[in-house]
């Protein structure tokens, strides 16, 4: 600066004016140097780095580039130049250095924030991220980093040691506990959820209390986002998954079978013992032919061995139309291509009720997709409702207007004949 000032004085410029011009020239020179360094960093260094990242075999560095970690880091270069030349302005050196330190702390916080986001993106690319999400932990790290950054900013502004501010935080612990209550609860809940493998991103859960019934799309420190089947989004606090009960359907998806548990209600007045004519008719049904033959042989052998008098149909053993129908359903399910044969498959009678005798189908489809499951279940019951009359059975139904009209027409027909 003395060299420039002496040169200006030698040109005939007054000393006071030469001092101001010297400062102006130095400021312009430093500004030009910062602009050139910034241009060189962003247009040359970052482009070369981007080209290398896009053309290497690693994938993790692409996430750093997408989150602009290197772009944010490049802002440090002009600050370092200004900091290095701050000695040229001794009257303002301390203020310049303080301002540069504040700026670099802010840039450092932005770089750390972007870096942690990139770490989450890198981790999310692995399958384990669904079972062990780390977003909550990264958010806790961000909180601590920003707290430390805020302490450094304040200590730099007031010119005191950060340890003095840290010593005063103990008095504010109660306030901090109140402010960060949800974050602390969320952190504890996140650790428990992860360690016990209770939920994962992509799990289907039900929480009727909060109107949640769908897939988890995001697990963060404070909230869990659930996309319901009607495409609405339900957001619940993370710690409610620990404090309240919920149903997780992951086991069903992992097992590869979805339970079908539904009943056919049979009118009990249509249940009868099978006549020889009915048995001959049932033998024409493919699934029942061998069963009927074996069953007749078994019953006949029982009657001979126990000297049963069959002049009365009540004596001994006999097949009933509902028993044959139940066996038909069992065999039908065992041959169905959409029923999981490695899981429980049975047809059972339940306690008779005022709507008839329930025949419950308890089986699992081998496709857990909701639409496929509903289609398979509907096809099976469509078939059963249609074939029940072939066994002399009536499916129970409360009287409808059509039933009343049929009864009225029948009564009018009988009167006309009388």
Mean pLDDT reading: 82
Strand order, largest beta sheet: 4-3-2-1-5
Q: Percent of residues in beta strands?
A: 5-15%
Number of strands: 8
Largest sheet: 5 strands, antiparallel
Q: What is the rounded distance between the termini?
A: 132 Å
As for the number of domains, it is 4
Helical residue percent band: 55-70%
What coarse outline follows from CA principal-axis ratios? rod-shaped
Order of helices and strands: HHHHHHHHHHHEEEEHEHEHHHEEHH
Low-confidence stretches: none
Q: Structural class per helix/strand content?
A: alpha+beta
Count of DSSP-assigned helices? 18
Any overview of this molecule?
This protein is of the alpha+beta class. It has four domains: 1-160, no CATH class; 197-255, Roll (SH3 type barrels), CATH 2.30.30; 256-272 and 320-417, Alpha-Beta Plaits (2-Layer Sandwich), CATH 3.30.70; 274-318, no CATH class. 59% of the residues lie in helices and 11% in strands. It has helices at 2-10, 15-54, 60-66, 69-73, 76-84, 93-124, 128-131, 135-158, 162-169, 173-179, 181-195, 240-243, 250-255, 276-283, 289-306, 321-334, 370-387, 401-417; strands at residues 204-207, 212-219, 223-228, 233-237, 247-248, 258-266, 346-349, 357-365. Strands 4-3-2-1-5 form a five-stranded antiparallel beta sheet, with no helix packed on it. Strands 6-8-7 form a three-stranded antiparallel beta sheet. α2 (15-54) runs antiparallel to α5, α3 (60-66) crosses α6 (93-124) and α6 (93-124) runs antiparallel to α8. The longest helix has 40 residues, at 15-54. The mean pLDDT is 82. InterPro entries: LSM_dom_sf, MscS_beta-dom_sf, MscS_channel_2nd, YbdG. The chain crosses the membrane at residues 20-40, 76-94, 100-119, 140-158, 164-180. One of its GO terms (cellular component) is plasma membrane.
């Amino acid at each position: 600066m003395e060299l420039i000032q002496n040169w200006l004085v030698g040109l005939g410029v007054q000393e006071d004016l030469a001092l101001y011009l010297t400062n102006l020239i130095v400021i312009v020179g430093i500004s030009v140097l910062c602009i050139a360094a910034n241009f060189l960093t962003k247009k040359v260094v970052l482009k070369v780095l981007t080209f290398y990242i896009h053309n290497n075999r690693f994938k993790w560095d692409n996430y750093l580039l997408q989150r602009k970690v290197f772009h944010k880091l490049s802002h440090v270069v002009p600050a370092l130049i200004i900091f290095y030349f701050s000695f040229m302005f001794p009257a303002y050196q301390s203020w310049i250095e303080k301002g540069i330190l504040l700026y670099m702390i802010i840039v450092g916080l932005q770089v750390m924030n972007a870096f942690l986001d990139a770490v989450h993106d890198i981790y999310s690319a692995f399958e384990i991220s669904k079972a062990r999400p780390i977003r909550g932990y990264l958010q806790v790290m961000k909180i601590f980093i920003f707290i430390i950054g805020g302490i450094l900013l304040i200590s730099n502004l007031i010119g005191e040691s950060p340890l003095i501010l840290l010593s005063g935080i103990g008095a504010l612990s109660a306030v901090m506990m109140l402010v960060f209550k949800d974050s602390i609860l969320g952190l504890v809940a996140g650790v428990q959820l992860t360690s016990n493998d209770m939920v994962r991103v992509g799990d289907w859960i039900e929480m009727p209390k909060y109107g949640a019934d769908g897939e988890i799309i995001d697990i963060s420190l404070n909230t869990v986002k659930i996309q319901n089947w009607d495409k609405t989004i339900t957001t619940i606090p993370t710690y409610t998954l620990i404090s309240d009960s919920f149903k997780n359907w992951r086991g069903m998806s992992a097992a590869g079978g979805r339970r079908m548990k539904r009943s056919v209600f049979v009118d009990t007045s249509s249940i009868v013992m099978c006549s020889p004519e009915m048995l001959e008719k049932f033998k024409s049904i493919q699934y029942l032919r061998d069963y009927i033959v074996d069953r007749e042989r078994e019953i006949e052998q029982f009657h001979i061995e126990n000297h049963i008098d069959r002049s009365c149909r009540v004596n001994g053993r006999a097949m009933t139309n509902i028993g044959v129908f139940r066996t038909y359903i069992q065999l039908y399910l065992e041959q169905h291509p959409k029923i999981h044969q490695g899981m429980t498959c049975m047809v059972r009678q339940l306690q008779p009720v005022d709507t008839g005798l329930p025949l419950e189908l308890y089986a699992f489809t081998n496709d857990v997709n909701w639409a496929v499951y509903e289609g398979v279940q509907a096809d099976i019951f469509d078939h059963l409702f249609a074939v029940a009359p072939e066994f002399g059975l009536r499916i129970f139904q409360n009287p409808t207007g059509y039933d009343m009209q049929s009864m009225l027409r029948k009564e009018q027909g009988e009167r006309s004949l009388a």
